[in-house]
Please model this.
Amino acid sequence: MTRKLFGTDGIRGASNAEPMTAETALRVGMAAAIKFVRGVHRHQVVIGKDTRLSGYLIEPALTAGFVSMGMDVVLVGPMPTPAVAMLTRSLRADLGVMISASHNPYEDNGIKLFGPDGYKLSDAVEAEIEARVDSDMGRELAKAAKLGRARRLDDARGRYTEYVKQTFPRGLRLDGLKIAVDCANGAAYKVAPEVLWELGAEIVPIAVDPDGFNINKGCGSTDTDYMRSLSMAHNADLGLAFDGDADRVMICDEKAEPIDGDQVLGLIASDWLANGRLKGDAVVATPMSNLGLEKFLAGRGLTLIRTQVGDRYVVERMREGGYNVGGEQSGHIVLGDYSTTGDGLIAALQVLAVIVATGKRASEVCRVFQPLPQVLKNVRYNGGQPLDDVKVRQVIADGESRLGPSGRLLVRKSGTEPVIRVMAEGEDRKTIEIVVRDIAGEIERASR
Model:
């Protein structure tokens, strides 16, 4: 069936417009409850959110939907997405929900669903829920005596903080390190600085004053200039930038030079291999990851397994093959020993553990391979099917020919926002810049 609600990372869209309206959120809660109310036990769902103003719209609507079907609701407030996944497992809940549009601006919001095992739902389960949303669910409503209840979990942040700290090697501390921490005015604005401070670091807090409108605005993992400039100004040893729901992280070294998710994957895989912790002699990534990473891993006898874009698909492949390191160039890092989804804070701690253990500076540790030239451009479009345009398809074919067998070209629609991503990679930067420019220009023309 054609999916209208769910994309590659749950449901997402402009707030107070379909599908991100209170009515649809209510019906999603009802439909998800029908799927996950099984057995005679008291059913429970954990709901977290980031700091967007529209969270006050979506949270009570979802709560009403679940309560109407007899599910108890545990509200944890602003918390990172991986915290919701962890708490869902910890509380033995039947379902977890994160209200967030991740790296998108405050005007957008989204709904991510997790099963009782803490993993994001499969395409098949999402399709079942979506099919129910437009159906008559009146017969499934709970009787008055069976309605659910809602309560707040006051120590949710403390539980997640302690869990994250336990992933940092015992015997190591962050004493002597100054870390610039950009929380994107999002879900990690309290927990990330707390964890790093409790482990001994001196913190330079950045974007930790959310007001409902400033999430990801000129800050965070998708706009690291602010973090890098303040990191340099404060002579920090390292800079960390999370996105709105803190399931991804981007890093800069003491020179304020950026370190992307591919470098983090290479570093962690190499460190875990040396310590006998890497499973399956492989790392799972997506077509967006640089060929330089693939060559680096191959030099250590490891395989880079590429899967569909989206951290959910990375996780699915990791589970299928029994791998424990995977992620995306954008900073989604999934470490299967600790988390069921991308966790920016846990990934950052693994990088910091290598820095502390080696006694070296971030610039010496975190840049493990030389990336091949790669250019990525996001092209916004207003509906329609620009990729079906004859001239667009021709210029894509021409681009593939120009790049040759040593290059790569990826043109795809985003599953989380109305953009088409054009990425080219190869030996010659000038050639790939021209290829991306030409394709983006034709897409823009076809979108008018």
